[in-house]
Design a protein that fits this description.
- The protein is an alpha+beta fold.
- The protein contains 7 helices and 4 strands.
- The chain folds into 2 domains: 3-43, Orthogonal Bundle (Arc Repressor Mutant, subunit A), CATH 1.10.10.10; 56-137, Alpha-Beta Plaits.
- A 4-stranded antiparallel sheet has the order 2-3-1-4.
Length: 158
């Protein structure tokens, strides 16, 4: 991936709805090579898709929870069982494998505390092999950024 590919990615992160012609103009490339580069980035899995970013609260899901999960035994079977179980639970937006005191960090949304409690009892607690669940409730969003920073930021010392 070269500098032009990174420019394409930054532009698409800022506005994925722009036309190929608009994108090509912004990165100073003709439309055909621009489109070819975008398709190559998609084929390589660097660009994984396009989506609308939706405000959880405005959508009707104002409760945002970050749950730290520890599993009882770190066997391949327990790990696979947990990861399979959470894969199809809609309330879980993100799941990260962690280093440190937690094994996983889940980002969960709900429309109320009552529905979060129901989610815990009917879905999360039913997953076998969990040692502990610690729920932390977000009371506000200070920063939410979807666009990746430029690699130059890291090379230049930020």
């Amino acid at each position: 991936m070269d500098r032009t590919d990174r420019q394409i990615i930054r532009e698409l992160q800022a506005n994925a709805r722009q036309t190929n012609n608009e994108l090509a103009e912004r990165i100073h490339l003709s439309p055909s090579p621009c489109l070819r580069r975008v398709r190559n980035l998609e084929k390589a899995g660097i660009i994984q898709g396009y989506t609308a970013i939706v405000d959880h609260e405005a959508y009707g899901l104002p409760i945002s929870v970050f749950a730290s999960i520890r599993i009882e035994k770190h066997s391949e079977e327990n790990v696979r069982a947990f990861e399979t179980a959470i894969a199809d639970i809609d309330e879980i937006l993100e799941c990260y494998l962690m280093a440190g005191t937690s094994d996983y960090m889940l980002h969960i949304v709900a429309d109320s505390l009552t529905s979060y409690e129901r989610f815990m009892k009917t879905k999360l607690h039913r997953i076998p092999g969990l040692a502990s669940i610690e729920s932390n409730f977000a009371i506000g969003t200070i920063k939410r950024r979807r666009a990746l920073p430029s690699l130059a930021h890291f090379r230049d010392g930020g």
